[in-house]
């Protein structure tokens, strides 16, 4: 990665749509793919395009409770978190509502997370 470009990432491109389908974790991963399948782009653009594809694929519905969502109210979450080796990709992501993702229920995806210093939990 060129110096000073932390806001850019390598992405794998779907050859049919020309859209990013996953953010690559390293330059080594990028080098293992064909040059026509890899782009170096702004991270915010890549995440936004992947997020839009997940919303469309999931029909703008929470995949747990079927609540109708918008781009502003829905949350794209990874099946396998990045901390556990997952990646930001269309295939590793699903759409959840706030309650299913971070709600107070013990069965919620992140209900056991503690609020960090200075954060405000919004309901």
What does this structure look like?
- There is one protein chain.
- The chain has a single domain (8-102), classed as His-Me finger endonuclease fold (3-Layer(aba) Sandwich), CATH 3.40.1800.
- The chain is of the alpha+beta class and 123 residues long.
- It has 3 helices and 5 strands, in the order E-E-H-E-H-E-E-H.
- A hairpin with a 6-residue loop joins strand 1 (8-13) and strand 2 (20-23).
- It has a 3-stranded antiparallel sheet.
- The longest helix is centred in the middle third of the chain and has 15 residues, at 43-57.
- The radius of gyration is 16 Å and the shape is elongated.
Q: CATH class, anyone? A: Alpha Beta
Give the termini distance in whole angstroms. 39 Å
Overall domain count? 1
- What sequence of helices (H) and strands (E) makes up the elements? EEHEHEEH
Outline of this structure?
The protein has 123 residues and is α+β, with helices and mostly antiparallel strands. The protein has helices at residues 27-31, 43-57, 98-102; strands at 8-13, 20-23, 38-42, 75-78, 93-96. The strands form two sheets. The chain has a three-stranded antiparallel sheet with strand order 2-1-3. It has a two-stranded antiparallel ribbon with strand order 4-5.
Features:
123 residues, His-Me finger endonuclease fold, two-stranded antiparallel sheet, 3 helices, 5 strands
Layout of helices and strands:
Layout lengths: L7 E6 L6 E4 L3 H5 L6 E5 H15 L17 E4 L14 E4 L1 H5 L21
Antiparallel strand pairs: 1-2, 1-3, 4-5
